[in-house]
Amino acid sequence: MALTLDDHLEAVANVYRREMLLALTDHNPQFDRAALTYGSNQPLEDRQVALEMEHVHLPKLVDMGLIRWNRGEHEVKKGPEFEKIEPLLAVLPGRRNSLVDDQSP
Length: 105
Fold this sequence. Notes:
Elements: H1 5-13, H2 15-26, E1 30-31, H3 33-37, H4 44-63, E2 67-70, E3 75-78, H5 82-90
Antiparallel strand pairs: 1-3, 2-3
């Protein structure tokens, strides 16, 4: 599947997907957030994020070919299409929490 600019923008539009992709630029592989926050003793918000990662965000990035995800090992690696999104990620390092909330001039 050839990814379009819209696909790349959709991939980084969510903070959790963006954080995972940015983390992979620094360290490949990563452990998925779901594995780290899935325990019942975690705050509800963390468990909700874990569920979103497992059922929405990581599968979306897999479908795009941007990551490879080994659910059993809770390991995320760069996918076959990852190099195509790297130029976009390169302009985001100072904006890991938001693309539009930065109020600096």
